[in-house]
TrEMBL record:
It holds the Pfam family Aldedh. It comes from Paenibacillus rigui. One of its GO terms (molecular function) is oxidoreductase activity, acting on the aldehyde or oxo group of donors, NAD or NADP as acceptor. The active site is at E255. This is Aldehyde dehydrogenase family protein. Keywords: Oxidoreductase. PROSITE patterns: ALDEHYDE_DEHYDR_CYS (PS00070), ALDEHYDE_DEHYDR_GLU (PS00687).
Length: 488
């Protein structure tokens, strides 16, 4: 049974109220699998709406920060329960709104529930250390305080998990939040906000404003009453946000792109490596910052790996993620589809060899959706655009290496450093990969994607602002440390 109601209008959430934008304008959020289907309408807000949300958040934070961690945690537990009760409905909305398959959407929503519960528990954990003073009569310790109002700018590829993994730690440590979700997934985000409302958060602690990134996102980055901004999305936008925040001395955290490699050694379990490459590269239609995009294979096993990979990719079913048996949904938007197709053309122009896919999938069964074939190129040289730039689609670039040293060198030859995998049964190779690979996530005999909520998440090089999200690491961004020296 479907739990989904199409065509509703979702308003902004500010000061505990659902409120239409002062612009009077809305925009439709469309289903990328059936381009005629409107999933819902969202507000096209302006700076005046944002000012109102931030003013409410500023006022509400004064009381919120004074509650005990246990009381704040209680609210997060209730939000988790509400999200769990609505899991099927919210997952279905996600699939309709951005295309990932329903099982993936359910898994992500369940992950949102687990994240909320993890951070609810954080309300009872320690926040500082006692440090011996050189003065034997003094007590010296650290404590932490919230930052104030936190601005949250999120992408469309994880419409539940990313908003939750930024909001939950911000809230538990005593901040209020104003979130601007990506318009492509704002209906799903509005439903997550309804869960916070149902949990009974005080008015103004949780706020959502939808609208153009250049107005609401940039507005958050520049707003004098927003003390910190956390962002996930493209490098281009992330850098702009970082610069705007830095210019006024606000704290910022950026999680951006990846060009994640997997190395397949000559002693690898090839079946395992193939399965992980397919899952890591093509699940969610390759639209993960942690997705595998470069596959560096030892010459000795290259041909057998390639044969097995193509055989497995040939079995992938592409279609509407709501349908049973569909393994891969559409690209999330026409923009994403065009990007993938443009990289297929670039790959051919640059002299790489197309082994599979590369084309849009059309026809009656596809309802004009943004479907693309899983795409594999070989003979990819390190200078080619398909080896260097983030594509964010179901796209694998195969490269050959003669030695493990060459493989790691190729893997490190990238602007990004988010996630990297190796498949090998040799412990020495595993250890040197851990040492040599420049990436925030090192994965041994496991796919490059799929992070765990209790562990730090973030990248090296251009993949992030060098900060970490999730797990206990989140406390570093969402609080300020005070060092206290007390003498009686
Ligand atoms: N690291 C990741 O997880 C993601 C990476 N991307 C990358 O970005 C590419 C483009 O996707 P987009 O959706 O266009 O990403 P984007 O970076 O434009 O959007 C991410 C968020 O930033 C907002 N935004 C857009 N322009 C802004 C501005 N000037 N100031 C402040 N906020 C702004 C958007 O509304 C959205 O909420 C993808 O092809 C992919 O390569 C996209 C989404 C997630
Ligand atoms: O791999 C994952 O589970 C997380 C990926 C992610 O954070 C992203 O794509 O933005």
């Amino acid at each position: 049974m479907s739990h989904f109601t199409a065509n509703e209008t979702y308003r902004n959430f500010m000061n505990g109220q659902w409120k239409a934008s002062v612009t009077g304008q809305t925009e439709a959020s469309l289903n990328p699998a059936r381009t005629g289907e409107i999933v819902g309408y969202i507000q096209k807000s302006n700076a005046q709406d944002l000012d109102e949300a931030v003013a409410g958040a500023k006022q509400a934070q004064k009381h919120w920060r004074k509650l005990s961690g246990a009381a704040r945690g209680d609210m997060l537990y209730r939000a988790a329960n509400a999200l769990e009760r609505r899991l099927d409905e919210i997952a279905e909305t996600m699939t309709r709104e951005m295309g990932k398959t329903l099982p993936e959407a359910k898994g992500e929503t369940a992950r949102g529930v687990a994240i909320l519960r993890y951070y609810a528990g954080e309300g009872l954990r320690s926040v500082g250390d006692v440090i011996p003073s050189t003065d034997s009569e003094a007590l010296m310790f650290t404590t932490r305080v919230p930052l104030g109002v936190v601005g949250i700018i999120t992408p469309w590829n994880f419409p539940v998990a990313i908003p939750v993994w930024k909001m939950a730690p911000a809230l538990i440590y005593g901040n209020s939040v104003v979130i601007k979700p990506a318009s492509e997934a704002a209906v799903t985000c509005a439903k997550v906000i309804e869960c916070y409302e149902e949990a009974g958060f005080p008015a103004g602690v949780v706020n959502m404003v939808t609208g153009p990134g250049s107005v609401i996102g940039q507005g958050l980055a520049q707003h004098p009453d927003v003390q910190a901004v956390t962002f996930t999305g493209s490098n281009e936008v992330g850098k702009r946000i970082g610069q705007a925040a830095l210019a006024r001395g606000a704290k910022y955290q950026l999680e951006m792109g990846g060009k994640n490699p997997v190395i397949v050694a000559d002693d690898a379990d090839l079946d395992l490596a193939v399965e992980a490459t397919v899952n890591g590269g093509l699940r969610s239609t390759g639209q993960k910052c942690t997705a595998t995009s470069r596959v560096i294979v030892h010459r000795e096993v290259y041909e057998s790996f390639k044969r097995k990979l193509l055989q497995r990719i040939g079995q992938i079913t592409v279609g509407d993620g709501m349908k049973d048996g569909v393994w891969m949904g559409p690209c999330a938007s026409e923009h994403q589809l065009r990007t993938v197709l443009s990289y297929s053309r670039k790959g051919l122009e640059e002299g790489a060899v197309l082994l599979h896919g590369g084309k849009r999938i059309e026809g009656e069964a596809y309802d004009g959706g943004y479907f693309v074939e899983p795409t594999v190129f070989e003979q990819v040289a390190p200078h080619m655009a398909i080896a260097r730039e983030e594509i964010f689609g179901p796209f694998l670039a195969l490269m050959k290496a003669d030695t493990m040293e060459e493989a790691v060198e190729l893997a490190n030859d990238a602007e990004f450093g988010l996630s990297a995998s190796i498949f090998t049964s040799n412990i020495g190779r595993m250890l040197s990969f851990i040492q040599e690979m420049d990436a925030g996530l090192i994965r041994i005999n496991a796919e490059s994607a799929g992070v765990e909520l209790q562990a730090p998440f973030g990248g090296m090089k251009q993949s992030s602002s060098h900060s970490r999200e999730q797990g206990r690491a989140a406390i570093e961004f969402f609080t300020s440390v005070k060092t206290v020296f007390v003498k009686g």
